[in-house]
Structure formats: C-alpha cells, structure tokens
Amino acid sequence: MILPALFFYLFAGVCVASAVMVIVSRNPVHSVLFLILAFVNASGLFVLMGAEFLGMVLIFVYVGAVATLFLFVIMMLDVDFTELRSGFLEYLPIGLVIGGIFLFELLLTVGFWVINPGVAKSITAAIPTNVSNTEALGLVLYTRYIHYFQLAGMVLLVAMIGAIVLTLRHKANVKRQDINVQNARTPELAMTVRKVASGQGLQDADAAEWVR
Amino acid sequence: MSFESAGYPLQPVLPELVLAFGAMVLLMVGAYRGQGTTKLVTALSLCLLVLTGVLEWMLPAGKLTTFGGSFIVDDFARFLKILALIGSAATLVLSAEFLSDPSRRIFEYSILVLLSTLGMMVLISAGDLIMLYLGLELMSLALYVVAASNRDNAKSVEAGLKYFVLGALSSGMLLYGASLIYGFTGTVSFAGVAAAAKTGSVGLVFGLVFLLAGLCFKVSAVPFHMWTPDVYEGAPTPVTAFFASAPKVAALAVFTRAALTAFPGIVSQWQQIIVFVAIASMVLGSFAAIGQKNIKRLMAYSSIGHMGFALVGLAAGTVEGAQGVLVYIAIYVAMTLGSFAIILAMKRDGQALEQISDFAGLSRTNPLLAFFFAMLLFSLAGIPPLAGFFAKFYVFVAAIKAGLFTLAVIGVLASVVGAFYYLTIIKVMYFDEPLEKLDPMRLELRTVLAVAGIFNIFFFAYPGPLVSVASSAAKSLF
Prior knowledge:
The complex is a heterodimer. Chain A has ten helices and no strands. Chain A is mostly helical. In chain A, helix 2 runs antiparallel to helix 3. In chain B, a hairpin with a 4-residue loop joins strand 1 (64-66) and strand 2.
C-alpha cells in the first residue's frame, strides 16, 4: 500500500513545514494562516489513522474557533511584533538547549517505553468493533454519559454568564435597536408631505426635522 | 421513568436538579426583568439554597448511587453538602450590602453563587474522575467571575485574572494526573481505581501526585497557595468570605474522598505527600501572617494554615482522621463566616476599613463587637474552651493514634506561632488608643455574627451532635 504512505508523508511534511513557517514568517497574519494549514494537515494525519472524529474536531475547534480567534486578536490589537521578536537571537541558545533536551527525552520515550500489556484487560467500557468512532461516541454520549454532558452544559452556561457580567456595559449615549418602537411607527409618524415652492427648497427648520 | 429502568435513578440527584433548574429560572427572571430585580433574585436564591438543603436532608438514609456509580450520596456527602449550602447561604446574606450598591447591582452575582454551589455539590458527591473534574470546573469558573465582579476596581479584576490563570494551570495538572491514573488503571471510577491500584506502580503514583497538586491548589495548601493572599485581598470582601468558606468545604471533601476511596491500597504513597503539604501549610500560614497589615491578607494566610491543620487529619488516613477533618472544616466555616461578618462591619462613614490598625480601641468604641471578634480570634488560634480548640484536638489525636508524632508536634508548634498574630489583633483592639466610632452594624451581619459567635463559644457545652454526625459521615467512606 503505497498510497497511505504517500499521503502520510504529504500531510506530515506540510504539517512540519507550515509549523516552521508559523515561527519564521514576518507577518503575524501569515503565521496564523500557516497555523491553520498545520492544523488541517494534522487532522489529515488523524483521518489516516482511522480517528476520523478527532480529525473533524480538530478542524471544528482549532481551525473554526481558536485560529479564527487568534486572527481577530492579531488584527484588532495593536501588538508590536518586531519588538517581541527583538530578543530572538539572545534567547536562541537556551531555546536550542531546551528543545534538544525535549527531543532527547521524546526519543528515549518512544524508544524504550512499553505500554503495560495488562491495561487492555482492565478497560471498563468495551471497545465496540462494528461501528465508527463517531457513532460509538454518539451511542454513549447522550445515554450513558448524559450527566457529564449536562454538567458540561452548565459549565458553558457559567462561561456565558461570566462573559456578559464582565464585559457588558450599558452606555448612555448609544443608539440601540428597539423593535417595539420600530413596529409602532406609522406612516403618519414617519412621513410628512410638504409643498415645496419651486426654486426655494426646504427651510432649515424643516430640514432638521427631516434628518431626525 | 426510563432513567430508572436503565439503572439511573434520579432521586439521589434531586437536590442538584432543583438547584440547577432554580438557578436557570432565576437567571431568566433577572434577564427579563432587568437589574432592578437584584434584591428579589438574591432573596429567592437564598430560599433556593435552603430548599436544596432540606431536600438533601430528606433523602433516604444510607448510601445511594446513580449514573453508574459516578454520583454518590452517603453520610459524608450529606454532611458536607449541607455545610457547603450553609456557607453559600451565609455568603449571600453577607453580600446584601455589596449588592445594594446602585453602582454595581448585578443580579448575576447570586446566580453565579448558586451555580458554583451546584459545582460544589457535584464535587462532594463525585464518584469518578470525570465527575470530579466537571464539578471542580463548574465551581471554579463561577468563582473566577465573582472574584472580578467589582469590575471597575483594578484590584478586583487583577484578583479574578490571577485566580483564573493559576486555576487553569491547576486544572491542567489535575487533568494530566487524571489521564495518567486512567491510563494505568483503565478506569475512571474511584472504586475501579481502588481495585486496580493495589500496588503503587510508578506511573500511577505520578498521576496521583498531579491529581493531589491540582486539589492542593483548590484548598490553597502550600506549595500551591501563591494565589490566595492576592485574591483574598483584591476580591470584594463578601466574595472573599465566600472563597474562604464553601469552596474550601467542597475541595477538602473531594480531597478526602479521592484519597480514601480511590487509593486505599497505597496509603503509604500519598501519606507522605499529605504530611509534607500539611506541615508546609501550617508553618507558612503561621509565619507569613505575622507581617501582614491588611486583615484580608491575614485571613488568607490564616486559611492556608487552617487547611494545613485539616489535612493533618487526612494524613492519618483513618476513620478518626476523616472525622477530624469533618469536625475541623465545620468549625472552620463557622469561625470564618463570623470573622468576615466583623470585617464587613468595619466601616467608617461608608468607607470600608481593611487595615489591622483600624481595629485600634474597638473594645471602647464597640465593646460587643470587640468581644465577639476576640472570641473568634481565640478560637482560630485554638485556645480552649472555644470551638477551634476542639477542631485541632480531633485532628491531632487522630494523627497521634496513627503514629504521626512529628506531624502532630510540628502542628502544635505552628499553632502556638499562629496564636501570636491572632493575639496581636486582640492587643490592638483592647490596648491601643481608640479611633472614631464605626458605622452601625447591619442587621444581616449581626445575625451571621451572632449565630457563628454563639456556636463558637458554646460548642464545648454540647459538642455531641456535630461529632457524632461527623463520625457516621467518616465511617461511610470506609
């Protein structure tokens, strides 16, 4: 099977390359776009491994929400990225050392760590074989794990209330839409018919009323 | 009911369902009727907390479980849930003045307290790691928001942000620990973990350490206490009172339940961690409080120290130890709420006073208040015959019976050092030159202070009910 291997190298290669580009590109907006590219390729890797639900969630959550939020923040906040980057060479040696240690540890783990063979026996929920991942999750999420789902809903409700409490301000001089007032408007209220003498136009007082 | 037939009886969660539903109804009331309803929503929230407590009380006796064992109602849960509800209700009472200020009338405050309490109840009843995490997040997320609820005050916002960032870090550690525990035992339920964790493999102990680190953060035990003084000082005072009472109950409850029911096979592994945390908290709480000038910061260090004392009981790992923890936390809540009622009453010309020097000469300008505060401080210091002495007595006896002599001796020494700074305040109140008179104390503060103070002073005469309830609650864990 050469095709999956080909796709693996394609996704993995683009993923690593775009991850590098996230760090090195000068324009922060380009960085975020490369980040999105990295996410999309990572989700492709998940699909190759048969974890289609994880791949989908990665696109939904990271590309759909997180990366878009990053883009908003970068475009809306005036962050001076050249200044942030100024210490790059100064911190390079220690960064390389830490990165090297991580890489070494990672290789050590991948090389020598063996997952306890007894674990597979003690898994409480049997892994269903004849359904897809998404279907298997759907079968238990709203039935067996309904309480977790509902509680997570309460957590999100608190997050929503919190965001409103902390950020909503009722300012005095802001024009807001009032649907009742809009619906109560009649042609008599909204329109006046004036006779305009030819060559004179409206008087200033009339014009002011018109604008209102 | 189809839930019943599926083995998911809803009766054990009835109080939680009522609380969640009521909170959502009150949210709608507030959202549609506007900020003018703050008073109404607060009063109804108080009624809802009382109703939830009554429902909890009326649940059938014995151990009830539901949702496949992930939700447990036993004597332990009942005792601590009612305690947490009392703490939350008292906090709402103490918040009346804060909420009546027209510049920040936020009806959401009581809703957030209700939802946080819901999180605490879930946390206390949690029978597996997922329930534990969800309860913890529900509780903490609401706490972060109420910490910053005075959003025009830079210190309050700083408190909220600091608490949020460090809380997220601790949640991360807890989740990492939980995932390791799941990885090494193949199950998330406490009973399943207990069955699988007969021997402490390295990976499991690793997960246990991270789990305990996350929980230590929530009870503000050293070395995860750094947020406490800043958050206590920055948050509005009624919110500080809330932080110091109900969430501590819930966090200590889940700490005890997780340690005793999920890891009974590897007591020797977690005992040394708890012993270290308890010693560090007691010592730091005693020494760091000495230099404080701000009463709220002082209460923060005091609460760090008290959590250390409570953990002494857990370190014992016996029924008596668990009983000690329960008695300790109940008495601690009473002492803390009483003290905060006094701190909230410290106002001169409508200006809140937070410095210890502001207490100067209180015994002459307001003798009754000074007497009650002195009694509460003596009790916090653990001087007989006040309630605080019995709290310490039970945990130290449990530690000695479990053979933890060093821990008990260090604990007693730390409480002697701690007595110094409590006595300093009493000295300021009774022997320093009096300042101007304080504003008259509000009725609701007086009520809370009277209940807490009388419980504190007369506990020695009639300790039976609390001790026996705590004893049966502790037995339900083993």
